[in-house]
């Protein structure tokens, strides 16, 4: 017996308002964890043609965070922090 996912139902679920709220909530957790004491991150989310998408954007306190390496470190810390909750 082979498992066959019902892609139509999965795709429609990925467009629901509930899925959108969950995607936004996770993006906010990542941004909050990445920001720490120095960084300034924001989130953006939108319903695309296939699913909800979200992004954690920038480090607007770039100079204090240590440049590109610092921003990368902060985002990785944000992913770790969001995963831990």
Offer a quick outline of the entry:
This protein is an alpha+beta fold. It has 4 helices and 2 strands; from the N terminus they run ααββαα.
Structural summary, described in words:
The protein is α+β, with helices and mostly antiparallel strands and 85 residues long. The chain is built from 4 helices and 2 strands. The protein has a two-stranded antiparallel ribbon. A hairpin with a 4-residue loop joins strand 1 (42-47) and strand 2 (52-57). Helix 2 (17-35) packs across helix 4. The radius of gyration is 16 Å and the shape is elongated. The termini are far apart. The mean pLDDT is 81.
The coarse overall form would be elongated
Distance between the termini: 36 Å
Runs with pLDDT <50, length 5+?
A: none
- How would you write the strand order of the largest sheet? 1-2
Q: How much strand?
A: 5-15%
Output the number of helix runs.
4
Q: Rg, please?
A: 16 Å
């Amino acid at each position: 017996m082979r498992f066959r996912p019902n892609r139509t139902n999965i795709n429609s679920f990925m467009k629901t308002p509930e899925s959108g709220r969950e995607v936004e909530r996770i993006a906010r957790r990542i941004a909050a964890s990445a920001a720490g004491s120095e960084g300034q991150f924001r989130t953006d989310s939108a319903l695309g043609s296939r699913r909800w998408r979200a992004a954690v954007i920038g480090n607007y306190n770039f100079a204090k965070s240590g440049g590109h390496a610092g921003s990368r470190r902060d985002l990785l810390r944000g992913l770790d922090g969001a995963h831990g909750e």
